[in-house]
Amino acid sequence: MDTIVDEAGARLSRRIRLERGARDWSLAELAQRSGVSKAMISKIERGETSPTATVLVRLAVAFDLTLAGLLVRAEADADGGLLSRAADQPVWRDPATGYLRRQVFARPDHPVELVRVELPAGARVTLPASSYARIRPVVWLIEGELTITEGEARRTLRDGDALAFGQPADTTYTNETDRPCTYLVTLSRS
């Protein structure tokens, strides 16, 4: 798994550099649009650091992409993406929390994306409302317990529970237990 994560990180660094270059943006312009410092963007593009989930979301939004869209572009599938084999699914680990994200399925021309997440015991990930601006997520908890705070609403999911999100709001995923939890996120583009 570590090899996949390392290779995914290198592809992600290249993709961020390519996305910025395709728009003819300077580091300063991307920093201003994303709220991520020039120094951090430079380190990410050079592969010197792995970005957190929050930083990736900010960069994706600046590029007018979802996080999944950015990751899919980094992992561009040569056969057109009709079949998503487990061995080929992009995997990325958040260096700050250990959050492990597997892009199960995503295609730019398909309205649905599937993401499998493993959130370590005690971990917490917060994503800004802007990351939900063009998508409608549903979370299905496969195993464990997960607390989702969406704006002012706080809900705890247990094995098999599902939650559809409302209007875009800052959202925090928290595993308040002493064991990891696993959940599937289904995203439909609106």
Would you mind describing this structure in some detail?
The strands form two sheets. Strands 1-2-3-10-5-8 form a six-stranded antiparallel β-sheet. Strands 4-9-6-7 form a four-stranded antiparallel β-sheet. By secondary structure, the chain is α+β, with helices and mostly antiparallel strands. The chain is built from five helices and ten strands; from the N terminus they run H-H-H-H-H-E-E-E-E-E-E-E-E-E-E. The protein has helices at 2-22, 27-34, 38-45, 53-62, 67-74; strands at residues 91-93, 100-105, 112-119, 124-127, 135-143, 145-150, 153-158, 162-164, 171-174, 181-189.
Q: What fraction of the residues are assigned to beta strands by DSSP? A: 25-35%
Biggest sheet character:
6 strands, antiparallel
- Show unreliable segments: 1-5
Percent helix, as a range, is 25-40%
Q: Helix and strand string, N-terminal first?
A: HHHHHEEEEEEEEEE
Query: CATH topology of the largest domain, anyone?
Result: Jelly Rolls
Based on secondary structure, the structural category is alpha+beta
Mean pLDDT: 88
Top CATH class of the largest domain: Mainly Beta
Radius of gyration, taken over Cα atoms and rounded to an integer in Å? 16 Å
The count of β-strands is 10
Q: Can you tag this structure with a few keywords?
A:
about 190 residues, disordered N terminus, 434 Repressor (Amino-terminal Domain), single chain, Jelly Rolls, alpha+beta, 6-stranded antiparallel β-sheet, 4-stranded antiparallel β-sheet
